[in-house]
Specification:
- The chain is mainly alpha-helical.
- The protein is built from 8 helices and 2 strands; from the N terminus they run E-E-H-H-H-H-H-H-H-H.
- The chain has helices spanning about 40-70, 85-115, 120-130, 135-155, 175-200, 200-215, 220-245, 255-270, and strands at about 10-15, 25-30.
- It has a two-stranded antiparallel sheet.
- The protein is globular, with a radius of gyration of 23 Å.
- About 25% of the residues are buried.
């Protein structure tokens, strides 16, 4: 995170006229302030990344405390995870997010060099795509790949997300690392799909991101804060909250806990011939 990600290092760059390019392309000199968009260089970058990490952890802990409070209040179907299970669930998210963040920096720099817009614009697009469309894609991938690996290996209990113990309640490391591998595969495939979509829709996406960032004063530093701090703080909070709901064990979900006793009663009744 201490390295500088330069986009547009030349003092001249190709800039579009109004959206749609009706005035054609013109080569205009940029001021020193706009020669490049540096994606969080130096110590400041490390500090901001640490701040984002702490904010993400705080969101997950808040969600954990909320589960405990609802359980204490006697909310039907609510069972809070213990801290060990919660930490394992959260670590998968944090490791996956760290990997995606590295890929996002690379994609932002690459797209900034290959297409219209700079690295800041494309990093903003990456964040918005990952935390909206990307969440839905990861959900579907986790559902599909979990069942695929279960079918291929014949081990249905190893890949079930959020379940790290055997029948006796003993923690099984193989379960965690197998699920972590599936999760990293999910976020990697999601990132490849999103990158392909960004490449196909690069022109309208560059226009949208440019229009959004142009709402702020012409200060690269302020825009950098919007792109690298404010946007990730808000969007990652939403992403972590939603993702935690489907990455944890289904036994911790209210709907599953509510239906399970009903299913057991129905099955028992059927076996005994009770309507």
């Amino acid at each position: 995170f201490g390295s500088r990600s330069h986009v547009g290092s030349s003092s001249w760059t190709e800039r579009l006229g109004p959206v749609g390019g009706s005035r054609g392309r013109a080569m205009v000199p940029l001021s020193d302030e706009h020669k490049e968009c540096m994606l969080l260089p130096g110590i400041f970058g490390v500090f901001v990344q640490g701040l984002l990490l702490l904010a993400s952890v705080a969101v997950l802990i808040f969600k954990k405390k909320r589960e405990e409070r609802l359980e204490r209040l006697g909310r039907p179907g609510i069972r809070a995870r213990n801290w060990a299970t919660f930490l394992l669930d959260s670590s998968k998210q944090l490791i996956g997010s760290g990997w995606v963040h590295v890929v996002n920096l690379f994609c932002a720099s690459t797209f900034g060099q290959m297409t219209e817009g700079d690295g800041c614009q494309w990093y903003w697009v990456n964040i918005m795509m990952d935390t909206t469309l990307g969440v839905g894609i990861v959900y579907l991938l986790l559902w599909g790949l979990t069942r695929a690996f279960e079918a291929l290996t014949g081990h249905k209990k190893i890949f079930k997300s959020g379940d790290y113990k055997d029948e006796s309640g003993r923690m099984i490391p193989l379960k965690y690392f197998s699920q972590l591998g599936v999760w990293l595969l999910c976020v990697t495939l999601m990132k490849l799909f999103v990158a392909l979509l960004m490449l196909i829709l690069r022109v309208p996406m560059a226009a949208v991101s440019g229009a959004f960032l142009n709402l702020f004063p012409e200060s690269s530093k302020f825009r950098l804060v919007v792109v690298m701090v404010i946007t990730p703080l808000c969007m990652n909070a939403m992403q972590f909250w939603i993702t935690d709901h489907f990455i944890k064990s289904s036994a911790s979900k209210p709907e599953e806990q509510t239906l399970q006793p009903q299913l057991e009663v129905a099955i028992t009744g059927a076996e005994l011939g009770v309507p």
